[in-house]
Specification:
about 180 residues, mainly beta, Trefoil (Acidic Fibroblast Growth Factor, subunit A), 2 helices, 12 strands, globular
């Protein structure tokens, strides 16, 4: 079975993901997920050499099992969004500098429940999408996490951009 097909079969429907989340903080017994780009087939990954910095960047990297840099726990917020907590650092996925503009880099930062730049929603888009993939949309900026320039290289830093429906903005959810 092709890798792309396996990823597609493992993709959780948006409804199941949201309904299955709890408001409890992440802990050692939390279910972790990987988020794989529909375009590159690579996973959202915390940049290893920056893991101990205040706001490590998030990149794409070849997907690997049991790698804490690629494990994220969605924590449901009261407004229906989720915070994505890194298994590696316990920090939340965020937009660098609380920026609203396209091209702002995706980082992780200390988790604050009220921080709209750390609140995300998985959203199918209005364009035909039979892939089962979803956009990852920032609650504050309304922009999607994407692979800048359609690049498929390991180490590409992720950024936010206007949600336009390209495959570089689609993400599959892989449960572990």
């Amino acid at each position: 079975m092709s890798r792309l097909r396996r990823l597609g079969l493992l993709t959780l429907p948006l409804v199941a993901l949201v309904l299955g989340l709890t408001a409890a903080p992440a802990s050692a017994d939390t279910d972790w997920y990987q988020f794989s780009s529909k375009w590159s087939g690579k996973c959202m990954d915390l940049r290893d050499q920056e893991a101990n910095s205040a706001t490590p960047h998030v990149q794409q990297w070849s997907c690997k099992n049991n790698v804490s840099n690629q494990q994220w726990s969605p924590v449901l917020q009261t407004n229906g969004t989720v915070q994505l907590v890194s298994n590696r650092t316990g920090k939340c996925l965020s937009v660098d500098g609380h920026a609203d503009f396209a091209g702002a880099l995706i980082v992780t930062a200390s988790c604050f429940t009220a921080d709209a730049w750390q609140q995300w929603r998985f959203q199918t888009n209005p364009f035909p999408n039979a892939t089962g993939s979803a956009w990852l949309v920032n609650s504050h900026s309304g922009k999607c996490v994407e692979l800048p320039g359609w690049n498929t290289d390991d180490g590409l830093l992720l950024a936010q951009s206007d949600c336009v429906g390209g495959w570089k903005q689609y993400w599959d959810t892989i449960a572990h």
